[in-house]
Amino acid sequence: MNNNPIVLALEIGTSKMIAVTGEILNSSEINVLSFGRENPGGVKKADIIDLGKAASLAQSAIEQAQKKIGSADIDFVYLAISGSQISAIRSTGSANISAIDGTISKQDIERAKSDAKSKILPPDACFINRICCGYYIDGQYVKNPEGRKGGLLEAEYWLMYANKDKILNAMSVVQTFGNLEIEEILHSGIASALACTSPQQRENGVLCIDIGCGATDYAFFKNGKVFQAGTIPVGGDHITNDLSLGLRLSMKNANKTKLKYGKIIPTEDELRGDVWLNGDKSIGDKVIPLAAINKIICVRFEELFSNIRSELSDYFANGNIPEVLLTGGVSRTQDLSGLASTVLGVQTRNARAAEWAPPILASPEYSTVLGLLAAASRDMKKRGKKSGGSIFSNIFKKR
Amino acid sequence: MSNFGNFIKAAGIGGGGVNSLEYLRGALCGGSCLAVNTDAKSIEASLAAEKILIGKSITRSMGAGGDISLAERAAQDDLDAIRAALEGVKLLFITASLGGGTGSAVAPIVAKIARDLGICTIAFCTLPFSFEGQTKTRIAENAFKKMRAICNAAIALPNDEMLAESAQANIISAFEKASLCIRAAAGSISNLVSERGLINVDFNSLKNTLQTSAPARAAFSFGSGQGANYVSKALKSFESFPALKSKFSAQKADKLLVGVRTGSDMPMAQLKETLIAMASKFTSSENVSFGVIIEPSFQKRIELTALGLEVSDELFEEPETQEEEKPKETQKKARKTRHNKSVEQNQSEFDFVDVDLKRGFFDDTARNIYGKEDLDVPTFMRRNIKIQVSKK
């Protein structure tokens, strides 16, 4: 057995519980070893609403994944987090340059950083990801200010925080289970973006939108860094619910209708036509105009994309977003990228799965969990193998 | 003929307007393009011959960001530059997409300057999609009413209608379609008055057509056809031109200008029939000017344009000012919504029991407040969009 670190990635999702293990090779390549998948339960809108149920299902997924790798020990656990409880603020911290000649030192950078990070949160909230978007020297953007000259250094941060209890709930799913300890919690949108985009794309600027079953997560990368990420609490379940309420169908039938007839650009003939719910014309079968299905779905998606657009309005207005990618299970909706292009005003495509993803996990709904492995590989490269000790686990270990 | 080109100008205002200038370049018989915007990026990217970046000190060249009063101040700051650019122009086309800040606020100001200079002005305004929200729609409609009151002719090209038409083809083409219509219309009008045509309309008769004593609604239609049966194809698309469905479009015209662009291969008899068919869509009166342009490159291809005005004073209130309007409008809307609801219930065509606060599957979860709305409630319910679920 070689000594490569093994990472377990876990997503407690609305439509599935999924655990994937992967080995991070020396070259920081990822080798997916196993996965476990369980039915959904206890989660709605990406929030855990029934902890017992969600925990036992998630643990069963972890067990499945663990069993397949035999005796190999799991070194790190990465957990994805999403849901309406996630909020974020942009924070800029500043520091006057201490050296007389204006050369920026490590200490200056640290001062600017801690100034930016020292935001006071509501009492029941805790930080999940504090992301440095970059620095400004006298208003000019720079990626790494060390050794450069200037008068005022500013550090820009995107601080993501969430309800403490909910985070603890999600963590307890893992921590009550054997000797696993969480290394890192990562926002699902950032994770998905890491799985779906290349470093080059993240350098040039890319917005990745992961439309899941319970919520939609997005992350906007530029200059290789996360500039903004967030969650819009609308997902595939909302579309099913819209159809269920609008067409008076049960959730089950609404879901069936959505999967069978839900598309963005129907042909003219289809728009004039009707569809049968079951098709066998038995009792309970009913006729639904396809135009009604189409309208309900389209207005929901239009609203979703225009909400994303307004969240990122500064970047959209200045043309900073050259490319948009869609992923997540709902992104499989036919022609959705065309609608997104129209509303966002930027060329939008469906993301392709990471090259290293095994075929069985190459579908867009696995982006988040694969992205956790990508994040693990990135972190490993940054700080050398097995050093461990991220901010998050430190925060919670003390508790 | 060639020097008349100098008298024609197309002004693109705001982001959308400046973009559509790309389609107009070269279509104006030597006329030039003028880009006006608050956003330096858009101005830089534009290939227009003349560019005015307005309100540099006010918006810091970053655009108005949808803020009407900001854009208005930006334009007031650079009135002189705009006036100088319009000096000597006889026929001005204004293109703007209304609903944002710069287009909605600045287009009426440019139009006013043009009117003061005695320029014959035709405006092409795209209106936002209804899903872009009621605020945008209200801003756009208000701006359009202003444009209609100031310009000789103001043509509304609502994105909703343009999209409905091309839904089965490609969503993006709605934008392109609007731009192509503007190109065709501005192109044929310029050609006609530049006396390049087989049958010309001189500038004075154009001015005559577009001058009315009372405020008027514009009717505008465009159709094109190519290949076999190109004439009937073009007529069909001309008759079902999407913007005609807009509430801002007139269906009849008291004065009409009809233009045809086609190749030399078109038989005279058919040409005459086409012109009559086009005119009779809008009017039965004598007051029609015809123009025909022969384009050597148009083989089995035809473009039909009609621009008319319908005088109707009943619908012309002065466009309200923003401040006064806001509170009133919300009250009115609330009342209207309630009214509509009862109508819906009576009709049984829209069978909701209670439109308010339906969350279905999400009833047992916390409310999903985003902005001021609960996103768990279906969008179509919150937006009051009618869904027809049973046969008429």
Give structural attributes.
heterodimer, A: 399 residues, alpha+beta, Dna Ligase, domain 1, Nucleotidyltransferase, domain 5, five-stranded mixed β-sheet, 13 helices, globular, disordered C terminus, B: 392 residues, alpha/beta, Rossmann fold, 2 domains, six-stranded parallel β-sheet, 41% helix
Task: Give a written overview of the molecule.
The complex is a heterodimer of chains A (399) and B (392). With 399 residues, chain A is α+β, with helices and mostly antiparallel strands. Among the domains of chain A are: 87-163, Dna Ligase, domain 1, CATH 3.30.1490; 198-350, ATPase, nucleotide binding domain (Nucleotidyltransferase, domain 5), CATH 3.30.420. In chain A, 36% of the residues lie in helices and 28% in strands. Chain A contains 13 helices and 18 strands. Chain A has helices at residues 51-68, 106-117, 164-175, 188-196, 199-204, 236-247, 251-261, 268-272, 290-311, 313-317, 336-344, 367-383, 391-397; strands spanning 6-12, 17-24, 30-38, 43-44, 47-48, 76-81, 87-96, 125-137, 140-142, 152-163, 182-187, 206-211, 216-222, 225-232, 274-276, 287-289, 324-327, 348-350. In chain A, strands 3-2-1-6-11 form a 5-stranded mixed beta sheet, with helices on both faces. Chain A is globular, with a radius of gyration of 22 Å. The two termini of chain A are 35 Å apart. Residues 385-399 of chain A have low confidence and may be disordered. With 392 residues, chain B is of the alpha/beta class. Chain B folds into 2 domains: 2-311, 3-Layer(aba) Sandwich (Rossmann fold), CATH 3.40.50; 341-382, no CATH class. Helices cover 41% and strands 20% of the residues of chain B. Chain B contains 14 helices and 12 strands. Residues 315-356 of chain B have low confidence and may be disordered. Chains A and B meet through helix 6, strand 16, helix 9 and helix 11 of A and helix 14 of B.
